[in-house]
Amino acid sequence: xxxxxxxxxxxxxxxxxxxxxxxxxxxxxxxxxxxxxxxxxxxxxxxxxxxxxxxxxxxxxxxxxxxxxxxxxxxxxxxxxxxxxxxxxxxxxxxxxxxxxxxxxxxxxxxxxxxxxxxxxxxxxxxxxxxxxxxxxxxxxxxxxxxxxxxxxxxxxxxxxxxxxxxxxxxxxxxxxxxxxxxxxxxxxxxxxxxxxxxxxxxxxxxxxxxxxxxxxxxxxxxxxxxxxxxxxxxxxxxxxxxxxxxxxxxxxxxxxxxxxxxxxxxxxxxxxx
Length: 274
Hints:
Strands 1, 2, 3, 4, 5, 6, 7, 8 and 9 form a 9-stranded mixed sheet that branches. This protein has helices at 20-33, 50-54, 62-66, 72-75, 100-109, 130-138, 150-166, 182-200, 214-221, 226-229, 234-247, 259-272, and strands at residues 7-12, 38-43, 77-78, 84-86, 119-124, 141-146, 172-179, 205-206, 210-211. α1 packs across α11 (234-247) and α5 (100-109) runs antiparallel to α12. A hairpin with a 5-residue loop joins β3 and β4. It has one domain (7-272): Rossmann fold (3-Layer(aba) Sandwich), CATH 3.40.50.300. The N and C termini lie far apart (38 Å). It is of the alpha/beta class. Helix content is 45%, strand content 15%.
């Protein structure tokens, strides 16, 4: 029986505070609850909030992999609905500004994983660092999270511009977060996509919006994903719709679609950038 292709999806934002990790966590847990095998790589290595959002404690993290104390398979922990988490190294300053060699070393560690996965969700740091772009370049799809606020729209546009013009990336998907309605999210997408078409000569695609919901804050305080904390709330229903949209995305991996795809792509990015 041949391995199924693993979809590698990066989740980014221009700056922090727009709900990037919340999107990553709830999307991953919802995909898992729909029967998919999902792993989150907490690549926001300076903050590493994913384990807090999942309500789980990691005895080891990526710093132990970097130091050679642990193999990657030894730091992976289980989260809600069977989601697996590769924990980042919260509070370790050096991890927030990895150089290319260190980033390549981290990615190479993924060759240690031989599990079959349907999805690898890569929750990258906010901003446009080399490490962020290396990770995003290695993904098949890139989700950019934004809010309907001037600073967030400008940051999202800047992120898309760097991805398109400097790194020649496509398959960029927008997820408006914290909007009042799906229509507001759709209008926001239409507006920013028009600017992208006019000034960058490309276009992004719309996935689904996440409606503002007080359960987001409550679930964060409870250290639980909203989709398990309040499965019937409006926001959770939006995540169900988002997960189903993600499941409709096509895989472009020909044959061996596992974690090696991610490793090879990042290695190629590192080689290109010297």
